[in-house]
Amino acid sequence: MQNWLIKQSQINPDKIALITTAEQWTFAQLTEKVLQTAGQLTTLLGELPRQTRIAVLVKNDSTGYLVILALQQLGLVPLLLNWRLSRIELQRQLKIGQPRALIVDDNLATQLKVDVKVKLISLKQMTTSKAQTIVPVPEFLPDQLASIMFTSGTTGQPHGVKQTFQNHFYSAVGSAFNLGLDTNELWLCALPIFHISGLSIMMRSLIYGMGILLVQHFSAVEVTQQLQDYPVTLMSVVPQMLQRLLKVYPAKGYQQHFRGFLLGGGPIDAATLKTCQQKNLPVVQSYGMTETCSQVVALNFTEAERHLGSVGKPLFPIQVRLAAKPIGEIQLKGPNLAAGYLDDSHGFSQKMTADGWFKTGDIGRFDQTGFLYICGRKDEMLISGGENIFPQEIEAVYQQFSSIQEIAVIGVNDEKWGQVPWAFYSTQKPINYQLLLSFGRQHLAHYKVPQQFIWVDHLPRTASHKISRSKLRELAKKMKS
């Protein structure tokens, strides 16, 4: 595949590629700036072998964006780190990644204290360095690594996922076939670019010739204003972000070019979907993971209303099957499946079936028309008195309780039943236990009703806004001890 950025600078030189609140660049201007950044990095790093790993710890701003693209132009692999992690977590990921250097945002550099010996390059040091003239790589070879990023670690330790150019390409193809492609597409990116939800938008930009409006911090009020001021066509969100945007939705709506939200990271609840329908806001539910370079299953705009709760049908390049019917583990096969785990090749191979399918760890079912429904994670499923219980089913019921803002259910070990469900929820003030118990017994089998309801200010989340069940399990363990 010809170098995507260079190709776009040739065929769409004057098309808008990147917008921030302060600046904007066409593809020709962006390419010039990326090559300059690549030249500055070469001055600091020297000539390095292709596929050398360089760690990147940056925020959602134009400089961080340029760094990621510049490393790809040099044939190097950006190892993307989450700046919200603790020092110990970052140290673990650097030890696993073994990068040649770490490029770090200046504001983050003062907080960074890791024992791993690695060359540090601040963004200020980079931007003030003299740029060498570099020759960008002519091709992005399909099996070469384009990026490495760590899974969100919602249920345990994160894995470093090796993503190839082929993975990103076919992810973009599947998305385009499902959502269609506006000739003047402008995708608002408020999700972190160190996460697949954000990075996949960057890669789509280079493949589609699409513009991106890059937002440094998600603020419902500020993003709402941008959705009115800029000709944004699409925005990727997680459920929490969508709910916050709906609370400040303007009476006049967004501007006329807006086509809808792409929702990932969790299912949409009935109340939120109803509000979107009332406001004539299209929402496309999707399912994917870091190992598949974003979405592999999705609803399209016309199907979303008729199939509430479904994540849709498999996108064009991907195959999906269940290990057992009618409910079983979801298995995937396709060209956007990652090359493996950086830190655990055996662990990745263990997730592959004998005939080459990837075991996702998610449990699902198909309806009669081929739409996929996610029941929950295999490792989140609890067995209570011999009965299988999926936390998402309980959560979906309690999300209908009017005052509950968010809720998460985990399994806790129990001497009598093996495991029992506990619920953690957030509201403005605690809810009477008997009210919650009675509500559950009206809508659920008795063994599915949580035995404990723990009120918290907010649920712990990962950088990708997913609920961290591993932290909830730690909290439950402390409460039992």
From TrEMBL:
<dbReference type="GO" id="GO:0005524">
    <property type="term" value="F:ATP binding"/>
</dbReference>
<protein>
    <recommendedName>
        <fullName>2-succinylbenzoate--CoA ligase</fullName>
        <ecNumber>6.2.1.26</ecNumber>
    </recommendedName>
</protein>
<feature type="domain" description="AMP-dependent synthetase/ligase">
    <location>
        <begin position="8"/>
        <end position="342"/>
    </location>
</feature>
<feature type="domain" description="AMP-binding enzyme C-terminal">
    <location>
        <begin position="393"/>
        <end position="466"/>
    </location>
</feature>
<dbReference type="GO" id="GO:0006631">
    <property type="term" value="P:fatty acid metabolic process"/>
</dbReference>
<comment type="function">
    <text>Converts 2-succinylbenzoate (OSB) to 2-succinylbenzoyl-CoA (OSB-CoA).</text>
</comment>
<keyword id="KW-0067">ATP-binding</keyword>
<keyword id="KW-0474">Menaquinone biosynthesis</keyword>
<dbReference type="InterPro" id="IPR042099">
    <property type="entry name" value="ANL_N_sf"/>
</dbReference>
<keyword id="KW-0547">Nucleotide-binding</keyword>
<dbReference type="GO" id="GO:0009234">
    <property type="term" value="P:menaquinone biosynthetic process"/>
</dbReference>
<dbReference type="InterPro" id="IPR025110">
    <property type="entry name" value="AMP-bd_C"/>
</dbReference>
<dbReference type="InterPro" id="IPR000873">
    <property type="entry name" value="AMP-dep_synth/lig_dom"/>
</dbReference>
<dbReference type="InterPro" id="IPR045851">
    <property type="entry name" value="AMP-bd_C_sf"/>
</dbReference>
<keyword id="KW-0436">Ligase</keyword>
<dbReference type="Pfam" id="PF00501">
    <property type="entry name" value="AMP-binding"/>
</dbReference>
<dbReference type="InterPro" id="IPR010192">
    <property type="entry name" value="MenE"/>
</dbReference>
<comment type="pathway">
    <text>Quinol/quinone metabolism; menaquinone biosynthesis.</text>
</comment>
<comment type="pathway">
    <text>Quinol/quinone metabolism; 1,4-dihydroxy-2-naphthoate biosynthesis; 1,4-dihydroxy-2-naphthoate from chorismate: step 5/7.</text>
</comment>
<comment type="similarity">
    <text>Belongs to the ATP-dependent AMP-binding enzyme family. MenE subfamily.</text>
</comment>
<dbReference type="GO" id="GO:0031956">
    <property type="term" value="F:medium-chain fatty acid-CoA ligase activity"/>
</dbReference>
<dbReference type="Pfam" id="PF13193">
    <property type="entry name" value="AMP-binding_C"/>
</dbReference>
<dbReference type="GO" id="GO:0008756">
    <property type="term" value="F:o-succinylbenzoate-CoA ligase activity"/>
</dbReference>
